[in-house]
Amino acid sequence: MAAGDTTPSKHPLLPKQQDEDGVHGEFNGASFSGAVFNLSTTIVGAGIMALPATMKVLGLILGVALIVFMAFLTDASIELLLRFSRAAKATSYGGLMGDAFGKYGKILLQVSILVNNIGVLIVFMIIIGDVLSGTSSGGIHHAGVLEGWFGQQWWGGRTFVLFVTTIGIFSPLACFKRIDSLRFSSALSVALAIAFLVITLGIAIFKLASGTITMPNLLPDVTDLTSFWKLFTVFPVLVTAYICHYNVHNIANELKGSTQMGLVVRVSLASCAVVYILITFFGFLLFGDATSEDVLANFDTDLGIPYSSLLNDAVRVSYAAHLMLVFPVIFYPLRLNIDGLFFPSARPLARSNTRFALVSSGLITLIFLGANFIPSIWDAFQFTGATAAVCLGFIFPAAVTLRDRHAISTKKDRVLAIVMIVLAVFTNLVAIYSNALAFFEKNEGA
Fold first, then answer.
1. What is the sign of the dihedral through the CA atoms of 362, 364, 365 and 371?
2. Looking at residue 304, what is its pLDDT?
């Protein structure tokens, strides 16, 4: 196949399950529940910890309303993605972009997944290192869980802990060639997110009963133009909270009945929306205006309740374990799209054990090095990861709809596509502007 050949039905980035007999063996298709767990795990990643802080800016009512609104908007964008994929006979997101915009459309999609997923996975690994080994910033040292339990030990250092985690957890889970094989780890990941929710809910109810919680703001506090513009700085967190589009085709290709994918998407989005609303509500209720940008940091202090230290450790350990199990689900589409970007003419990745091992080990090594040698990539992640995520979730599906190569879009589809593009572009411009302004102000004050 020539590098410029973008015929999606013949050369998808993701091979169809019936084309991989040598890999799948007796595999007869993924179950509905397995698909829901994998898609839910894709959605609920590190972003769940940033949502409570958005309530500090928006207030509870507007914040919860926007969480619900973004769930519906995400459902609409994925519905467009699936419908136009069927019309194009595309079995991958890259195949759909190639059908609509040719070789360069596919490459743009692959690069966006590379930027987004590598950034996300490095952030995951940095957070895991912070939780287990601790971190120091501004001259203040925050002890990790291992240091709190065993004191300072050589084997509790960040590099060694991340090395053991990479070899013992990430690498084995990254060896699966079917995403359905991750359904059990995904189910456990969702359970750990729910465990975090239950602990937070329990702490909030206890403090409510003891009268130590004050009522948080229900509406945003807008007093001038500056506070008005500040409202828009939290939109990128909300816009990207449900990004899972890069895994939709992977999961749909393995599902027993492809017609079930729409229901899988709606059940996953509804479940995640409920988790988001509850964690956002109780997290903000618990910490109020003291809610950190990463609410996990609030669990590094005395909660003012019995067994505070034990509950703090339970929250942090469950969250770190949650990210470890989310890692392979985000890694799966990254590996496939990197392979499609650099080896477009090769046979399916799952059929080449050597290439599969080389691509997998190379990516894991890159992520490991990034997490160890980049002290903090939050600013870079906001500039690159969030922008790429918005492209994947809203701009690309909307662009395919407006391109309408197979003449199937309705007036409603086109209006929706324009709304998604305007929302995505506006929120990201505001985010980039606000982040750049904060960066320069910080440097001037230094």
1. positive
2. 75
- Of 50, 28, 30, nearest to 252 by C-alpha is 30
**What is the Cα–Cα distance from 391 to 400, expressed in whole angstroms?**
12
- Percent pLDDT > 90 in the chain is 17
Structural tokens at position 410: 């309705």
Q: Give dist(CA 162, CA 165) in Å, integer.
A: 5
DSSP class of residue 10?
T
Kindly provide the residue ranges of all beta strands, DSSP E only, lying in 381-441, ordered along the sequence: none
Torsion sign, CA atoms 83, 88, 94, 100: negative
Instruction: Calculate mean pLDDT across residues 296-321.
Output: 81
Q: Give the helix ranges, DSSP H, for 20-92.
A: 21-24, 32-43, 51-58, 60-88
Helices 60-88 and 51-58, axial angle in degrees (round to 10): 120
Please state, in angstroms and as integers, the Cα–Cα distance from residue 71 to each residue in 74, 272, 399, following that order: 5, 9, 20
The string over 150-163, giving b where at least 16 C-beta atoms fall within 10 Å of a residue's C-beta and e elsewhere, is: eeeeeebbbeebbe
Mean pLDDT of 354-365: 90
Convert 228-254 to b/e letters by CB count within 10 Å (16 or more is b). Answer: eebbbbbbbbbbbbbbbbbbbbbbbbb
Predicted local distance difference test score (pLDDT) of residue 7: 43
